[in-house]
Structure formats: structure tokens, C-alpha cells
Design the sequence.
């Protein structure tokens, strides 16, 4: 079988999980009263004024399984309800804020991946040496600091030096002006595409604190996973074979052991992405960075259940997508896998 | 009688030797002692909270506040750690916050451990459709970042300790189920289990007597590493103002009160509650890390 | 001990000691191992699990890893240029030059000895290029020089000249970053394809040498796509890639089916003749010893206790341990088996004196106190026992 069949099989395996995700969200939805639930079906603020009409129209007093299918039909047609926080439909609100979060993750990724993989490898090859002890302490401390507190502390020291939010007022004005074309919704990319370098730097400045804060926990986790995976590979017999061939230790480690050691972090990729989303919610609130995490927490605080549930559903789907990507990467890294 | 004692000693000798090895290993690592010290310190605070910070109102978990001025005031005789926004007493909140942390994380970890290992055991042992249903549920929950899931559940269940316990339990059990199932699958193939099966031992007996004792260690390691993570998750919920009602002693909430006063001029409001969480969690993580080093059979002997 | 035949030895171990520093204490894995391997012979080391056979094999290539350490002794090796060196005195870099080039090794578990994420071809090529890239590079240099003469285009000439410069740098083993980065630039690293092509050609030849059918297919396969026997053949091919003088085989057949086992053994025998190899063959299986070895050393608890020609070992064993080993072989003539009594000794606190004395039927007070030394009792038959020579144990 080839890769295409493998991907199709993986997609088929996702179906029960997708079903599970909708069931879980629907179960949470049913904890609310019909009048609270109405917001999930509304498409405009006007509709929200006539809750009884919605309850009637969508049969919110019908038996549960009937309601499940009504709700599912709504969801599949792209209606996640009306967000009171954003004063627009939930899906629109999420898609509007998505590029900001994507941009944040994009800037955080190198801060997670490079030191994570590098320090993890170095710690394993220098087991029990100073570097290993140092990286261990770094990992445990990094893993012990609540993201929100780390964010607050950084904010305390860098307030006045590094700004919060996404852009300075000046840049916001430029972004809203007619001369500026929004291509991707990611400020850094759009600024470059419009040739406005000062705006690019402005956006990067706003990204530094959130990206660093976001990276710490995931970096610590990746470092430890990489270390233990690398240690395991270094004990493998093929490493002795490689040494017996007369290869340089550098080649033995970088070509042979590390290539195998990479497989294990990939199998935890879904978990790492979930970890990142937890951080996103915290970081965006602290730095007032208006992405989807910010939207979610704000709506949770205001009990805007349509947005909360809509976002959860959306998030579940995104993680499934990453799951699929991780499976493909895994197949690429490990030739032993059965397509 | 003497013979019996001798026999018993002989039978137990390998176990005692292993225990000795474990204790030696722990002694070798000074960090473990630091960890134990930190944890005992917080246990002490939690137990003696009523004496360290005598309650002033009817509900001891509600923090007293001295006036209604929004600006935090610096440490003084009345409030040794200073006060935070709305003049809530930081010292009082931090002391009783230790109790809150234990009251939240202990039941969550206990429930998660029971539910997770139980379902993992059943799933791995029986396989088939039961396994399929349990593992797909695990995958489903895994599709949600635990903070997102917990926030959503608390919104639905309403504020308070019990909602948070339920929410975090729902978010965390799949880790345990998955690890336990993997271990059970490994043990199930071993000859001693096959032998017990061929002797006609009941399923329950095989599971409890043979499989559980041999597959529980990785789950225990996971649990020892998770206490801190659960405390942080709980604190994060209350930082968002979602977990506990306003004024309830909780480190996360105290940190959220500092949200509008993040500045070196009001350092105490940000730094102190964060230090309490971080040191507490650090203690658990150090302990978890050395427990893993000591108990994980793959690295134990290195 | 002093071994005769001064210049015929490919390898000679003198008083080799290896220690493992563990929690349980200092494991005295090798306690003064002495033996020699003559040119073009197959020398077997036979013994129970845990007696130190594998450690001995690994020590020869200095592949003992932490917490193990070679603490004493000499490993004298005759190089291809006839100079004799002590492997323990070499720098890490010098050892690497010998590993896989003049001494190579094949392993017990072929399934785990190959890297699962690379094709067999890649791993073979890597072995070939780690020692023979210079020869190939020189050939390529000559080819390119010829090309230049025939080339008219100025630019192409320039390009080929740059390639030659780069090849020269590589031949000189200039491990500078510059060489490394330059070698990654397309066009001027054109010679690399040629290098890879040559290595592939050689690899296919090697696969044919080890009697693998469809070598082209196997070259492209990943290890998990091969059978145990095929994997072991690939590993043998890898070990032979740079015409070593000594091949160390650490129980290479014990994890294979019996039928495949004997095929691999006869293959090794053939290859030995073809390539003028000396072989150190490590096993716990006396049957294998009888089939493949010329001389045998019997190992017990970190010591070689008897060395003799293979026939002498079976027909005239002198050490009590060897005698009991041979008696323990099941055969159709015997009515019952005679397993060796007692247990393998603890290596942290080994028995005093002769390490075999607690299990030895002939042991007396002297054996407990002082270890006997290896003596040549009959011609080319060395034994480490006070009582050997008087088989009934009457003399003390």
C-alpha cells in the first residue's frame, strides 16, 4: 500500500473520534437550559431577542437524540451560533482571530523546537554531566512555573520596553487605511507584503513576550522527551554496529541515534499541540493579544456559551488535523510502519 | 516457627534488597530531600492554616479585605505580605490557598487514578468492543487541550470546588487509561498470566493478583509527575476568574487580582502568590522526577 | 604467559582486565585474559553466559561503554603493514581507523544490529565510505582530469577544476568546516554522485559475495523487510567491506534457525579462505565450535582456562571445567545428561583462588588459596589447573 491509502485509512479512523467530539460538546451543551442554549442556534442578534421562537424552531424541548441531530445539522452547515462578545457569528469570529494565533504559534515554534531538540540531545549525550544537570533543572523549573505567572513576571520587568497587544496605534491606523491590503491577517507577513518594514518590526516587538512565554513549557517538555528518547537509542545495538564500522562519534549520534530518537517526540505531537493551545489561552489574555485564545477566555468569563462551545468544537477539529499530520510525519520517519 | 520466619525472610530478601536500593538511590539525590522538605512545609501550612491565619468571617476560605480601595497596599503589620486589589489580605490568601490546592488536586488525582487505571485495565484485558469504546473516548478527550475542556465544563457546571474537580478529572483520566492499557497488553502476553489462565483462575483474580501489581508502576510514575500539573491547571482556571467565586482563597485568583497592577511598584501583588504556586509545584515535580528515576525499570540501574 | 610463534600472531591478548562499576559493586568481568590468534585461523572462545566472552570481543575494538572500563593488559594487533601495535595505547581517532577497516565485528542479534530507519544499501555504503573514500576519490580525480582534457567549454573546465580542488581537500582529511560546507554546494560537489555510484557498485558486489540472491533488491530494502539470515549476511558483507585481517564474530548464529545457522557457518568458512581472514568466533555452543574452529579457548568466569586445538579439546580435555562441558553435551550414545553442578559465580565477589573451585570435583585447599597459572601441558595445549596432567586427581 502507498502513502495515499495510509492517509485514507487514517482519515477513516478519525470518524469515530469526530463523532465522539460532537457527542462530548453536545453533552456539555445539554447541561444548559433551553433558553441558554438558544444562543447556539441564533444567527443574528435580532434572533436572540426572540428566544422562544428559537426554542420552538429548533425543538429545544424535544427528546435528546432529536436535538442532537438538529444541532449536528446546524454545525455541519457551519452555524456555530452567534457570539455576543464579538457581535458576529461564532465561526466568523473565530476565523477572524485565527491568523493572530497562528502568527503567535509560528513565532513560538522555533523557540520550542530548536532548544528542545538541541538541549535534549546534548543532555543525553552528556548524561550526568553539567549540561545534563543544567538542562534538567531548566526543564523542571520551566515545567513548574505556571504560564500565567511567568507572563506576569515578564510583563512586570519589560513593561515600558516591550509593548502588549498586537500592534501600536499608529500601525493599527495604517492597517485600517485603504493603502494597506490585508492578505493573510498575520501582521508581520502582511507588513512585509505591503513593504511597510516599520510595521513589521512593530508587530515583531509585540510578539516577543507572548512567544517567549508560550514557548517555555513546551520547550521544557520537548527537551525531556527528546533526552529520554535519545538515551534509549544510544543504548541500541545498531549504535554499537555504527561505532564498530569506525564512524565518528558525531556521525553515530547525529545520523544514527538522533534519526531514531526523533520518532518518539512525533508520537507525542498531538499532546504537544494541545499543550500549546493551553498556553495560547493564557498568554493571549495576559498580553492582551487578540487571538482565538483571547476570544475563548473572554467569552467564558462573560458566559457567552455559543462562543465557548463553538470554539471547543473548532479546537477539537484542529487538533484532529494535527493528529493526522503527525501520523503522516511518523510514517515518513519510521519505515517500519505498515501503510 | 523459626523455620517459617526464616522462610519468610528468604522469600522477602529480594524485595528488601530492592527497597534498600531504592532508598539508597533517593539518598543519593539531594534534590529529593529538597522536594520532600517543600512538600512537608506546604502540608504543615495547610493543616495549621486556622492557627497561622485565624479566620475572620464565617467561611474561612473567603479572604478578609481591609477597605475597598483598588490600589494594592504594601506589606504592613496588619497584612504581612501586603494587600492586593480591593485590599484582600495576601498572607491570608496564600496560607488558605495551600489548603485549596490540596483540596483540589488530591481528589482529582485520586479519581483520575482510579478511573483511568480501572478503564485502562478493563480495556486492555478484555479488548474487543469494550476496548474500542474506551479508547475512542480517550482519543476524543485527547482532542481537547485540558484547559479548554476544563473551562468549558466549569462554565456548564457552575463555579466552585466540585465543578473544578469534575472538570479536571474529565480532562485528565485518558492519560492514565492509555498508559495502563499499554502496560496491561504487555503483561497479558507474559507466560505467568497464560499459566494462571490455564489453571482456571478467574478474570478478576488474574487482573488484581497478577496484572495490576506488574503494570501499575508506570501509572504511579505518571501520577507523581501530575500533582504539580493539576495544581497549575486549577490555578489557571481561577486566574481566568472561572474556577472560584471572587474572594475565595486561591493562589490563581490572587495572581489574577494583580493583573491590573503588574509593575515593580506593586511587586508583592504579582510575585508572592506566584511564588507560592511555583515552589509548591516545583516540590512535586522534583519528587516526581526522582521517583521516575528510581522506579522506571529502564533507567533504574544506570 | 609467553606465547611461542612470535610473528605468526594476528592478535595477542595479555592479562586483559575489565571492570564494571555498578551499584552492586565492582564487577570483575575479565580477570587477566590471555590468548593469541594466529594468522588465517579461526579461534573460538566458548563458555557459559556471563563468563566474559562478549566483553572480550568488544574490548578488542575498544567498544566497552560506561560503566565498563579496561583497567589493565595489552591487546597486541599486527597491522596490515606488519607493525605490531597495542590497541589500548591508541588515541580514539586511531582506534576508529582500525575499527571496521582492519578489525571488524559481526553481532549476536542481526535484527537489532542494523539501524531500522536506513536502507541496507545506505548502511553498507556508509561502512564502505568510512574507510575507502580516499581510494575512490583518487580514482574519481583521475577520471575528472581525463574529462577536463576532452572538455572544450571554459566554464565546465573551471567547474571540474574546482571539483578536483575539493577532492584534494577531502583526501587530505581536512575536517574544516569550509570543506564540509563546500561539499554541500551543488555542481561543484558533482563528484559526490560518482563516489556514491562507486560505493553502490562495491556494495552490490559484497552482497553477491555473501551469497544473497537479488542483491539489487536487498540494497534498496529496509532491515525489517529482510529475514534474520539475510540481515546477518548483510552485516557480514558490511564487516568485509574493507578487507579486514581479523573478523570478530560474537555468537552470530545463536538467534537464527539451525538450518540457517549452518549455512552462515559455511559461508564464514568460505569467506575466510577467499579473504585471508583470521576469525575470533565467540559462542556457547560446542557443536558450532567443532564445525568452524581451528583452536579453542575455554572461558570461565573472566579467565581463559584451557587453550588447545579443536580435536584435543574434544578428545583430550584437561581442565575439569572443559571435561564437564563436554560431558554435558547431549548425544545419542549417552543415556543421561551430566549437567554441570553449582552456579555461575558472582563476579562482584568471585571465589578466591581458582574461580572454578566451588564447582570442581577435584578442588582442594590449594585451589581455594591461589589461582593456578596457564601452563603448556602438552604441545600447544595450555591448561590452567593444578590437577590437570593427573586425570584421576591423585597427585596434588
Sequence:
Amino acid at each position: 500500500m502507498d502513502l495515499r491509502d495510509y492517509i485514507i485509512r487514517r482519515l477513516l479512523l478519525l470518524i469515530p473520534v469526530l463523532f465522539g467530539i460532537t457527542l462530548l460538546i453536545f453533552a456539555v451543551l445539554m447541561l444548559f437550559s433551553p433558553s441558554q442554549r438558544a444562543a447556539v442556534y441564533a444567527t443574528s442578534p435580532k434572533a436572540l431577542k426572540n428566544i422562544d421562537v428559537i426554542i420552538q424552531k429548533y425543538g429545544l424541548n424535544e427528546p435528546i437524540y432529536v436535538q442532537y441531530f438538529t444541532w449536528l445539522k446546524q454545525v455541519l452547515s457551519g452555524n456555530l451560533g452567534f457570539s455576543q462578545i464579538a457581535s458576529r457569528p461564532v465561526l466568523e469570529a473565530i476565523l477572524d482571530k485565527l491568523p493572530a494565533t497562528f502568527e503567535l504559534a509560528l513565532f513560538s515554534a522555533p523557540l520550542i523546537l530548536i532548544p528542545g531538540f538541541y538541549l535534549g540531545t546534548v543532555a543525553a549525550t552528556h548524561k550526568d554531566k553539567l549540561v545534563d544537570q543544567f538542562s534538567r533543572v531548566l526543564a523542571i523549573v520551566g515545567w513548574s512555573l505556571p504560564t500565567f505567572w511567568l507572563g506576569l513576571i515578564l510583563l512586570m520587568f519589560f513593561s515600558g520596553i516591550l509593548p502588549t497587544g498586537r500592534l501600536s496605534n499608529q500601525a493599527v491606523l495604517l492597517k485600517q487605511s485603504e493603502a494597506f491590503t490585508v492578505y493573510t491577517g498575520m501582521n508581520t507577513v502582511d507588513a512585509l507584503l505591503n513593504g511597510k518594514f516599520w510595521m513589521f518590526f512593530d508587530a515583531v516587538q509585540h510578539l516577543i513576550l507572548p512567544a517567549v512565554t508560550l514557548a517555555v513549557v513546551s520547550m521544557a517538555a520537548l527537551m525531556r522527551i527528546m533526552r529520554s528518547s535519545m538515551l534509549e537509542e544510544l543504548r541500541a545495538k545498531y549504535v554499537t554496529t555504527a561505532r564498530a564500522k569506525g564512524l565518528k562519534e558525531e556521525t553515530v549520534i547525529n545520523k544514527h541515534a538522533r534519526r531514531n530518537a526523533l520518532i518518539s517526540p512525533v508520537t507525542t505531537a498531538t499532546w504537544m499541540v494541545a499543550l500549546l493551545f493551553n498556553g495560547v489561552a493564557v498568554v493571549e489574555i495576559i498580553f492582551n493579544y487578540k487571538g482565538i485564545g483571547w476570544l475563548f477566555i473572554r467569552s467564558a468569563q462573560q458566559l457567552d456559551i455559543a462562543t465557548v462551545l463553538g470554539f471547543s468544537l473548532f479546537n477539537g477539529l484542529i487538533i484532529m488535523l494535527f493528529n493526522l499530520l503527525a501520523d503522516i510525519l511518523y510514517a515518513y520517519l519510521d519505515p517500519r510502519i505498515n501503510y | 516457627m523459626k523455620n517459617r520466619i526464616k522462610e519468610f525472610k528468604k522469600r522477602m530478601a529480594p524485595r528488601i534488597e530492592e527497597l534498600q536500593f531504592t532508598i539508597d538511590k533517593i539518598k543519593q539525590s539531594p534534590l529529593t530531600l529538597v522536594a520532600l522538605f517543600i512538600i512537608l512545609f506546604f502540608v504543615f501550612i495547610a493543616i495549621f492554616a486556622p492557627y497561622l491565619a485565624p479566620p475572620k468571617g464565617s467561611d474561612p476560605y473567603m479572604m478578609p479585605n481591609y477597605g475597598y480601595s483598588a490600589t494594592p497596599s504594601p506589606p504592613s503589620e496588619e497584612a504581612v505580605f501586603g494587600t492586593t486589589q480591593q485590599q484582600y489580605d495576601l498572607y491570608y490568601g496564600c496560607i488558605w490557598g495551600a489548603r485549596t490546592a490540596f483540596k483540589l488536586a488530591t481528589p482529582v488525582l485520586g479519581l483520575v487514578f482510579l478511573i483511568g487505571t480501572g478503564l485502562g485495565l478493563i480495556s486492555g484485558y478484555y479488548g474487543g468492543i469494550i476496548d474500542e469504546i474506551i479508547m475512542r473516548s480517550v482519543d476524543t478527550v485527547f482532542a481537547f487541550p485540558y484547559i479548554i475542556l476544563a473551562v468549558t465544563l466549569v462554565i456548564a457546571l457552575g463555579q466552585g470546588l466540585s465543578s473544578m474537580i469534575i472538570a479536571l478529572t474529565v480532562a485528565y483520566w485518558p492519560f492514565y487509561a492509555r498508559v495502563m492499557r499499554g502496560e496491561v497488553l504487555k503483561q497479558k502476553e507474559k507466560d505467568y498470566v497464560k499459566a494462571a489462565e490455564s489453571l482456571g483462575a478467574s478474570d478478576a483474580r488474574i487482573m488484581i493478583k497478577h496484572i495490576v501489581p506488574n503494570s501499575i508502576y508506570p501509572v504511579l510514575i505518571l501520577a507523581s509527575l501530575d500533582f504539580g500539573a493539576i495544581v497549575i491547571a486549577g490555578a489557571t482556571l481561577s486566574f481566568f476568574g472561572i474556577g472560584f467565586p471572587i474572594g475565595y482563597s486561591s493562589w490563581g485568583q490572587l495572581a489574577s487580582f494583580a493583573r491590573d497592577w503588574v509593575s515593580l511598584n506593586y511587586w508583592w501583588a504579582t510575585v508572592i502568590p506566584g511564588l507560592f504556586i511555583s515552589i509548591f509545584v516545583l516540590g512535586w515535580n522534583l519528587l516526581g522526577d526522582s521517583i521516575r528515576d528510581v522506579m522506571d525499570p529502564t533507567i533504574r540501574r544506570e | 604467559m609467553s606465547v611461542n610463534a612470535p610473528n605468526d600472531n594476528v592478535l595477542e591478548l595479555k592479562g586483559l582486565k575489565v571492570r564494571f562499576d555498578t551499584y552492586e559493586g565492582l564487577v570483575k568481568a575479565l580477570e587477566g585474559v590471555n590468548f593469541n590468534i594466529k594468522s588465517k585461523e579461526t579461534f573460538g572462545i566458548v563458555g557459559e553466559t556471563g563468563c566474559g566472552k562478549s566483553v572480550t570481543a568488544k574490548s578488542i575494538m575498544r567498544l566497552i561503554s560506561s560503566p565498563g572500563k579496561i583497567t589493565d593488559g595489552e591487546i597486541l594487533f599486527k597491522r596490515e603493514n606488519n607493525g605490531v601495535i597495542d590497541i589500548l595505547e591508541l588515541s580514539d581517532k586511531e582506534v576508529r581507523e582500525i575499527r571496521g577497516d582492519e578489525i571488524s565485528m559481526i553481532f549476536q542479534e542481526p535484527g537489532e544490529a542494523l539501524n531500522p530507519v536506513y536502507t541496507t544499501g545506505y548502511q553498507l555504503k556508509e561502512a564502505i565510505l568510512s574507510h575507502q573514500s580516499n581510494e575512490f576519490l583518487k580514482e574519481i580525480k583521475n577520471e575528472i582530469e581525463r574529462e577536463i582534457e576532452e572538455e572544450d567549454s571554459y566554464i565546465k573546465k573551471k567547474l571540474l577544476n574546482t571539483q578536483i580542488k575539493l577532492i584534494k581537500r577531502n583526501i587530505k582529511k581536512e575536517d574544516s568546516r569550509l570543506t564540509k560546507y563546500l561539499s554541500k554546494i551543488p555542481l561543484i560537489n558533482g563528484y559526490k554522485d560518482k563516489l556514491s555510484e562507486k560505493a553502490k557498485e562495491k556494495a552490490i558486489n559484497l552482497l553477491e559475495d555473501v551469497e544473497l540472491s537479488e542483491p539489487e533488491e536487498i540494497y534498496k530494502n529496509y532491515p525489517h523487510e529482510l529475514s534474520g539470515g539475510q540481515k546477518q549476511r548483510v552485516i557480514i558483507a558490511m564487516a568485509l567491506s574493507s578487507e579486514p585481517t581479523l573478523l570478530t564474530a560474537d555468537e552470530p548464529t545463536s538467534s537464527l534457525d539451525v538450518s540457517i545457522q549452518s549455512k552462515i557457518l559455511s559461508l564464514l568458512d568460505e569467506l575466510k579462505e577467499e579473504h585471508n581472514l583470521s576469525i575470533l568466533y565467540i559462542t556457547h555452543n560446542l557443536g558450532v565450535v567443532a564445525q568452524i574452529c581451528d583452536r579453542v579457548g575455554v572461558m570461565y568466569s573472566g579467565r581463559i582456562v584451557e587453550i588447545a586445538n579443536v580435536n584435543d579439546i574434544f578428545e583430550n580435555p584437561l581442565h575439569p571445567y572443559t571435561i564437564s562441558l563436554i560431558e554435558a553435551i547431549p548425544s545419542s550414545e549417552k543415556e543421561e545428561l551430566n549437567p554441570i553442578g553449582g552456579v555461575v559465580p558472582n563476579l562482584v565477589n568471585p571465589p578466591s583462588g581458582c574461580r572454578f573451585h566451588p564447582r570442581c570435583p577435584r578442588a582442594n585447599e590449594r585451589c581455594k588459596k591461589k589461582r593456578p597459572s596457564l601452563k603448556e601441558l602438552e604441545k600447544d595445549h595450555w591448561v590452567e589447573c593444578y590437577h590437570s596432567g593427573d586425570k584421576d586427581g591423585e597427585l596434588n
